[in-house]
Design brief:
Strand content: under 5%
Low-confidence stretches: 224-228
Number of helices: 8
Structural class: mainly alpha
Helix content: over 70%
Mean pLDDT: 90
Largest sheet: none
Distance between the termini: 56 Å
Shape: globular
């Protein structure tokens, strides 16, 4: 009984708690005064703490293979990774173009604040922020949450949609634009998990997309001038 309560509250934390905390962060004006690398560090620590809790929950409930942490055919994983990267970057680039043309909601002030400008910040983005997001968010949302919702609802399609919406809401600090984009990318990243039963293509694609977005797409389309 105690384990079921833990699983239930962890799902609630991902679906409700994280979006609320994400939204509240946008109302903290002190964030604008914090150095960018300190914001990166805080976000990384928060994600790994949440992931550590998720690992405990998985160990006591379903096991790692049931949340997609298992190896499958190498060639299939490579193909899916390349396809995911291409499609996800296309979706991301299109949304930024639409925003520039005024056909997509503008990025929030906090998103613009987080875009790296210096060489040091870009190294942080590629070597720390992007891999953390790829590993932690895929494990939590495409791994644990989707598997748990599928088990509860007996519907992989419903779990796919609900976990994608939850992933979008978790990015509420990015405003409407970021939430819509995150939900769409979350749905794309979930596809190979459903078909291959493994998270590794989604983790690889997530890392590449975040790294490219942080160090190239966002500065280019949002007008940031990098310092070298």
């Amino acid at each position: 009984m105690i384990y079921r309560l833990i699983w239930f509250f962890f799902v609630i934390l991902l679906v409700v708690g994280v979006p609320i905390l994400s939204f509240l962060s946008t109302r903290d004006t002190r964030l604008r005064l914090v150095p960018r690398t300190a914001l990166y560090f805080s976000a990384v620590v928060s994600q790994w703490l949440l992931t550590a809790l998720g690992i405990v929950v998985v160990v006591t409930s379903m096991g790692f293979s049931s949340v997609g942490l298992r190896w499958t055919q190498w060639s299939a994983q490579v193909r899916w990774s390349i396809l995911l990267i291409a499609v996800s970057l296309g979706v991301l680039g299109l949304s930024l173009l639409l925003e520039r043309w005024g056909w997509w909601p503008e990025e929030s002030e906090l998103v613009r604040l987080l875009v790296p400008e210096t060489r040091r910040e870009k190294l942080w983005a590629v070597l720390v922020v992007a891999p953390t997001a790829a590993l932690c968010e895929e494990f939590l949302y495409r791994g644990y949450l989707m598997a748990e919702l599928s088990r509860w609802s007996h519907s992989a399609s419903w779990a796919w949609a609900a976990s994608s919406v939850a992933f979008g809401l978790a990015h509420s600090y990015q405003g409407i634009s970021g939430m819509l984009r995150a939900a769409a990318l979350g749905a794309l990243l979930a596809y190979p998990v459903l078909h291959l039963g493994t998270l590794f293509p989604s983790i690889a694609a997530h890392f590449v997309v975040d790294a490219v977005a942080l160090v190239w797409l966002a500065p280019r389309f949002m007008g940031n001038k990098a310092e070298v």
